[in-house]
Automatic annotation (TrEMBL):
Gene Ontology MF term list: oxidoreductase activity
Keywords attached to this entry: Oxidoreductase
Family matches, as Gene3D superfamilies: NAD(P)-binding Rossmann-like Domain, ornithine cyclodeaminase, domain 1
One Pfam family from the record: OCD_Mu_crystall
Record carries keyword Oxidoreductase: yes
Family annotation (PANTHER family): KETIMINE REDUCTASE MU-CRYSTALLIN
Name of this protein: Delta(1)-pyrroline-2-carboxylate reductase 1
Gene encoding the protein: ocd
EC number(s) on file: 1.5.1.49
GO CC entries: cytoplasm
Keyword Oxidoreductase part of the UniProt annotation: yes
Alphabetical list of NCBIfam families matching this protein: PRK07340.1
Length: 316
């Protein structure tokens, strides 16, 4: 007697994955995950590749859902017309082991990173209406523009990039969304006019050397290894001394290049979970004034939140 193989799980391509992950709902899913004590996320495995890139293997689970993210990151791919991040996320039922979904890895990475920044801005930004400065006009710059417009109601955006063509393309996209957008050629000078800042560069060298405003919220997402950097060390030390620095998770203790290269004790900084749960660590660290610097390095828990968000939408 022959047994029929189980049906293949639904595979969501990039467009379908994006449509299943609206930014406000995804930010809510991230917050719910941070309150869930059943979530477990082991350290990610990073395998160097012969071409200078890395293979990331990132599992996570709660009491209902398990995921594994398999992506490659090759930083110079965009210069050759290829995406820097490629791969998929496999979603399983945590109780019976069934494969439930396959999600497009780069799309989830872009959207969940921006949704985490959105949640941080909801909680920490003193002037969440902007104007918003985006430094780095690639995939993450676009995702953060969309997320902050959808989730915070931002209407004015300034965009800086080493590539004028990339900045102009993102300005055009913002204009199509109905935003007041313009390219700026000096990101340091633009900091003075923007209480919301997102740095989403390739983080191969310092991109920002000026100090953000005293009422600024900064989401720094480009540097996610100890050797990457976007913000000058002296600026990071100033932010730690005069404002509040928050990291996305404890994985940042050994991955937050901007902060590590500034010589800061990253392990002593509060995490986004501390903020959401209002822990004693957060109450000790928060200041009533001064800039807020949110350092995001990535975590498989964010991908689990995205999977939960997709499954919840499908069940409604």
């Amino acid at each position: 007697m022959s047994t029929q193989p189980p049906p293949a799980p639904p595979w969501l391509d990039a467009q379908a994955t994006a449509e299943a992950l609206p930014y406000p709902a995804l930010a809510d899913a991230v917050e719910a995950l941070l309150r869930d004590d059943t979530v477990t996320v082991p350290p990610r495995l990073v395998q160097p590749l012969a071409g200078g890139g890395s293979l990331f293997v990132m599992p996570a689970a709660d009491d209902r859902v398990a995921i594994t993210k398999l992506i490659t990151f090759v930083p110079d791919n965009p210069a050759h017309g290829r995406p820097a991040i490629q791969g998929d996320i496999v979603v399983f039922d945590a109780r019976d082991g069934r494969r439930r979904l396959l999600l497009d890895g780069p799309t989830v990475t872009a959207r969940r990173t921006a949704a985490v920044s959105l949640l941080a801005a909801r909680r920490l930004a003193r002037r969440p209406g902007g104007p918003l400065l985006i430094v780095g006009a690639g995939v993450q710059g676009r995702a953060h523009l969309e997320a902050f417009a959808a989730g915070l109601g931002v209407r004015q955006v300034r965009i800086a990039s080493r590539s004028r063509a990339s900045a102009d393309a993102l300005v055009e996209h913002a204009t199509r969304l109905g935003l007041d957008a313009q390219r700026v050629d000096d990101a340091d000078a633009a900091l003075a006019d923007c209480p919301l800042v997102v740095s989403s560069t390739t983080a191969q060298a310092v991109a920002l050397r000026a100090r953000p405003r005293a009422d600024a919220f900064v989401a720094a997402v480009g540097a996610f290894t100890p050797h990457m950097v976007e913000w000058a060390p002296e600026v990071c030390r100033h932010l730690a001394a005069s404002g509040t620095v928050v990291v996305d998770t404890r994985d940042a203790d050994h991955e937050a290049g901007d902060l590590l290269q500034a010589g800061l004790d990253v392990g002593a900084l509060p995490t986004l979970a501390d903020v959401v749960r209002d822990t004693p660590a957060w109450r000790r660290a928060r200041r009533a004034d001064g800039p807020v610097f949110f350092k995001s390095c990535g975590w498989a828990g964010w991908d689990l939140a995205a999977a939960r968000c997709v499954l919840a939408a499908g069940s409604r």
